[in-house]
Amino acid sequence: MHRTLDSFDGVTHFWCPILGQPINFGYCRKTNEGLPCPRVLACYESHFDVAGFLGQHFNDEQRRSFLAPAPGKLERICRGLEAAKHEQEPES
Known about the structure:
By secondary structure, this protein is mostly helical. It has one domain. Helices cover 47% and strands 10% of the residues. The chain has 5 helices and 2 strands, in the order E-E-H-H-H-H-H. Strands 1-2 form a two-stranded antiparallel sheet. The N and C termini lie far apart (60 Å).
């Protein structure tokens, strides 16, 4: 059965581990620069066939993009330090 992109937007997940509150699928579906949250499979797999839904509405490249593992805390800190270092360097 074909579902529209917003078919499950009202489904609420009990607790979002990122935001720390209940949240609906409509938010999670577009929170990542218009793409779903990387945790969407884990959070909604018990509510409906979210993998099938994602396969129906997002191409392979998009799914690889938002389902890629998020960088860990240490990696995010290192990236932030590297970015700050480049901002501090004087231009030649």
